[in-house]
Every structure is written in structure tokens, then in C-alpha cells.
């Protein structure tokens, strides 16, 4: 099977080893301190680019930053939660955190107006990010559409340092709007190193494997501007509830963070499982947890305890756990999570200074 990844379309990766070998993604360093993070511990963050150098700079108290972005083109769902959780974890460790709102990219590549993308960024994304633990007082949030002059200057000058052939080799054939979007995103990652901002330092960008093409492109550009190559960690993509890709255009494939609990429960009821065709066969042959979207949600988000997760897996494999029981447990945990998130989200909406985020910068 040919593995393809695209930053503009939902990707469905089956063989992460093949992807890593093809694109030069290195295994995550064996660092005991990282094991406290569930995503590292369970190999859900499976690879990196210069993360070892970032960890060294961080340990030696050199300047470091973590940057990630909000693509406000559709509903925020559980697939997006991994990136937020990682940023919150780094922020709790004391790292400077930057969150960009990709309203220009949403307009150019997804056809949204700036007004619509900004509204979506606040109500659908940033409020949920805060509900998930992001401390806005310790985060610099900015929109692509109103960053200051040095940022735009860099985006323009980066066009001198690449060719259409080089971009096509990474992305395939690009329309003009995607070329502009790609250079804007390169400036998002690199501009923090300019003297007008934080100066030369190591920037970490946690990404899903579908966004790795952007990092490869940006890392090629950085030395041409005498800037450090950004580091990245690369995480797996959670598959859709119905099997295959999780896509914002297919509502049954994801649980949206703004969904009602009853709607989330219905989606879980209809999720693809690793169960057999009958209870008798399940008892005899056991289930297939690694092919089960219900078990996947436990693995990614809804079972913090590794021993309990392993017990659930073994019971399924031994035919001692049935899909209905497993789904019911998941529904209870998801409903509790959704209700608590809603309360925190509503509080967050009252705290967000929208005018400050979208005001013109005069730097």
C-alpha cells in the first residue's frame, strides 16, 4: 500500500515505520522524563526532527519556544486534542508558548472569509484550548492576518530561497494560493527567531504526521536566512470512528468538542469495533482491539492508567470483554468529559480578549 501524507487533506496512515523511513523521521529519544507524558509513553508521538537538540537546549536553560497553530476551517474534534495537550504539557513545564490563528491559510486554502475564520477560531477552537488547560496569560496568540511588518517581510523574502520545483517535490503541484499559504506558514515558524521578536533560538513545533511536509520545507529554508532549523515531534493520526480517515467533512467520523453528549454517545454506538460477528465467536476467538475505534479512544484519551488499558486489551483478546460493555464504559467517560469541557469553555469565552488578539500590530 502506498503511504501518502498531505497537509491540506485528511490522511490515513497505516504504516508509520514506512513513512518514517521514506521521509527521514527519527525515532523519539529514549528519555525517561518524557515517559510521564501519555503520548510519548504509548508511542503515539512516534518520531521527531531535532527534538534531541531542543531537549538539550531546554535542559541547558537556553532560549526555547513551542509554537503551534489553529486552522479554523471546521469543527474542533478529538483528533485535534493531541496537539493541545502537548502544548499545555510544555507550558506547564515553563516553556514559552505561541499559538497562531491561521486565518489567511483558512481563507486561501479552505475558502473561508476572514470574518468567519476568526469567529470559528475563537468559539470553536481557542475557547476549547483554554478549557483543555491552555493558560492564555502565558500564551502569545496572534492571527496571520494582522501580525507585524517583519513577519510579512520574512514571508515575502522566503520566496527568494526556494523554487517551484522544490515546492512541488514536497507538496505536489501547487496552486498560487497554496504557495502563498506555504510561505506564510514558514514565516509563522521562523519569524520568532528574528531580532524583532525573540532572537535566534530553537523552536519546537508539535505536529501530526500529515503536517510533516511543512516542517521539511521550512527546515530547508531556515539556514538560508541564518536561522536555526525548527525542531518537531510527530504524532500519529487518530483514525475515524467509522474506520478510515477522520475528516471534518464527515460528521460520523469524529466527536466534536462542541457536540452534545447524547450526539457523542450515538457516534460511539455506531463506531467500528474489533468485535466478532457473534458473541459465541467473540468468546472463542477474542476481539481485535488494535482494529477497534472504541479501544483507540481509550488508548489516546480516556484511559490514563497503563495497567488498566492493558487489562482491557487482554480481556478483549481473550474473549472476556464484549463490545457493548466496552462502548458503555466509553460513553460514560466521554459524556463526563464533554459536560465538564462545556462548562470550562463557557467560562473561557468570557475571558478571551478578541480585540487584543485581532488588533493591528505596529511593530
CATH fold call of the largest domain:
Rossmann fold
CA(first)-CA(last) distance = 50 Å
Order of strands across the widest beta sheet? Answer: 1-2-7-6-3-4-5
CATH architecture field of the largest domain:
3-Layer(aba) Sandwich
Quickly name the level 1 CATH class of the largest domain: Alpha Beta
Main sheet specs: 7 strands, mixed
Structure overview:
It is a single chain. With 363 residues, the chain is of the alpha/beta class. The protein has 2 domains: 16-239, Rossmann fold (3-Layer(aba) Sandwich); 251-346, Tyrosyl-Transfer RNA Synthetase (Orthogonal Bundle). 48% of the residues lie in helices and 10% in strands. The chain has 16 helices and 7 strands. A 7-stranded mixed beta sheet has the order 1-2-7-6-3-4-5, sandwiched between helices. Helix 4 links the parallel strand 3 (64-70) and strand 4. The mean pLDDT is 92.
Write the layout of secondary structure elements.
Layout: H1 16-23, E1 26-27, H2 38-41, E2 45-49, H3 51-59, E3 64-70, H4 78-92, E4 96-101, H5 103-110, H6 114-131, E5 139-143, H7 149-157, H8 164-171, H9 176-190, E6 202-208, H10 212-221, E7 231-235, H11 261-269, H12 279-285, H13 293-302, H14 306-317, H15 323-349, H16 354-358
Parallel strand pairs: 3-4, 3-6, 4-5, 6-7
Antiparallel strand pairs: 1-2, 2-7
Helix pairs in contact: 5-6, 5-9, 6-15, 7-9, 9-10, 11-15, 13-15
Amino acid at each position: 500500500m502506498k503511504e501518502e501524507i498531505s497537509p491540506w487533506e485528511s490522511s490515513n496512515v497505516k504504516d508509520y515505520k514506512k513513512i518514517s523511513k521514506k521521509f527521514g523521521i527519527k525515532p523519539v529519544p529514549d528519555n525517561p522524563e518524557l515517559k510521564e507524558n501519555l503520548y510519548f509513553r504509548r508511542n503515539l508521538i512516534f518520531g521527531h526532527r531535532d527534538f534531541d537538540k531542543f531537549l538539550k537546549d531546554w535542559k541547558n536553560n537556553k532560549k526555547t519556544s513551542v509554537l503551534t497553530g489553529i486552522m479554523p476551517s471546521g469543527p474542533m474534534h478529538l483528533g485535534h486534542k493531541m496537539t493541545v495537550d502537548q502544548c499545555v504539557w510544555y507550558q506547564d513545564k515553563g516553556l514559552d508558548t505561541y499559538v497562531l490563528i491561521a486565518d489567511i491559510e483558512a481563507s486561501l486554502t479552505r475558502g473561508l472569509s476572514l470574518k468567519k475564520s476568526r469567529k470559528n477560531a475563537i468559539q470553536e477552537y481557542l475557547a476549547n484550548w483554554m478549557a483543555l488547560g491552555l493558560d492564555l496569560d502565558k500564551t502569545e496568540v496572534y492571527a496571520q492576518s494582522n501580525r507585524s511588518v517583519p513577519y510579512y517581510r520574512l514571508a515575502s523574502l522566503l520566496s527568494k530561497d526556494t523554487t517551484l520545483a522544490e515546492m512541488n517535490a514536497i507538496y505536489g503541484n501547487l496552486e498560487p494560493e497554496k504557495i502563498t499559504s506555504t510561505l506564510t506558514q514558514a514565516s509563522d515558524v521562523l519569524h520568532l527567531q528574528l531580532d524583532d521578536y525573540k532572537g535566534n533560538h530553537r523552536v519546537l513545533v508539535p505536529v501530526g504526521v500529515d503536517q510533516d511536509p511543512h516542517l521539511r520545507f521550512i527546515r530547508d529554508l531556515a539556514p538560508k536566512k541564518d536561522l536555526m532549523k525548527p525542531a518537531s515531534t510527530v504524532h500519529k493520526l487518530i483514525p475515524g470512528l467509522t474506520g478510515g480517515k477522520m475528516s471534518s467533512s464527515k460528521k460520523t467520523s469524529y466527536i466534536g468538542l462542541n457536540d452534545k453528549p447524547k450526539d457523542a454517545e450515538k457516534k460511539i454506538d455506531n463506531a467500528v469495533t474489533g468485535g466478532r460477528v457473534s458473541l459465541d465467536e467473540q468468546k472463542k476467538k477474542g476481539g481485535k482491539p488494535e482494529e477497534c475505534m472504541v479501544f483507540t479512544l481509550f488508548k489516546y484519551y480516556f484511559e490514563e492508567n497503563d495497567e488498566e488499558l492493558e487489562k482491557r486489551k487482554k480481556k478483549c483478546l481473550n474473549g472476556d470483554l464484549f463490545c457493548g460493555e466496552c462502548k458503555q464504559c466509553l460513553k460514560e467517560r466521554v459524556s463526563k468529559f464533554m459536560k465538564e469541557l462545556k462548562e470550562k469553555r463557557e467560562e473561557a469565552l468570557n475571558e478571551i480578549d478578541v480585540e487584543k488578539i485581532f488588533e493591528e500590530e505596529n511593530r
